[in-house]
Amino acid sequence: MKDLNHEPDFDPALEQELRKLAPAPVKERLLERMEEAVTHDTAQAQPVRHPARNWRLWVMPATAVVGITLMALLAPQSPTPEAAKPIAPQDSLPSVAKTEEEPIELFPVRRNNEVVEAVHEGIIQVPGQAPYRKVRVQVMDSMEWIAPDGVTRVEYQVPREEHLLVPVEIR
Amino acid sequence: MSDPTANWSAWLADHSPKLLLFARTQTRSEADAEDVLQDAIVEAARKSHGAPPDLPLVYATLRRRAVDLARSTDRRTAREEAATEVTEICWFDDRIEQQETAWLIDRAMKRMPEKFREVVMLKIWSELTFAQIAETLDIPLNTAASRYRYGLESLRRDTNLKLR
Q: What is the mean pLDDT of residues B128-156?
């Protein structure tokens, strides 16, 4: 063996002889199966990140805010019987001006992590290690934003599940 | 923009034979070796965000999955495995003119203690460095080197290969 990676020679003649042998080829069926599995999986898989760092979770409330703001601006201010009446052209000018209001600014007012359910799923015994108690915990993470006027309020909830292994004390 | 599946086709064609060879040394049946190999590649691909991963990562993942599989099936299938322990699948390419040598090495490798065999496999046919082997198998570097030496001695003794 050559001194690649500064590693010692052991039995150069035998090593050279062994390297002449190639591993057995992989069946075409297995290659196709693996390629399909890996391309399908990586096309669907999303990197697992903490919910707070996942930008998609922040896009959802932001989209909701935009939607609510548009609805608030475009909807009639007071759905009175008079609003249903035909409006004269000169009367409609002020309402057009109202649609140019600035977007509502929201502030976070509440964040909560509520344990919905904790289920004891038994004892796990790993050979050579201490036993563990397996506990499945379901948590509901929720956040709430509110506009300064108190009228617009956005809330979202994200459920998550954790599997905890708790070492069992043996006395 | 290049097709990402084309990268995977080439990567799998290049590396699958030696990965499967290692998987065979870590499992008890051909079906287990194929399943563990596929799972390890998928898991390693996830860790590398869909790109073909570094080989040492795949070897380490493959070994961990094989250990997990062995633990989960240890009691249940011990009797079945004993009955099918002797496999007729040759681990090496025996279609070439070196067919006799391939079978000789194949039998010697299958008889070799596992702790020596996995190091020899990774060093000779996977071309990993001792540092990478040590990391993959979670053993000290000196242990990897000494197991390799013992493995080669075992091979030479068992095969009586006529070498220069």
A: 92
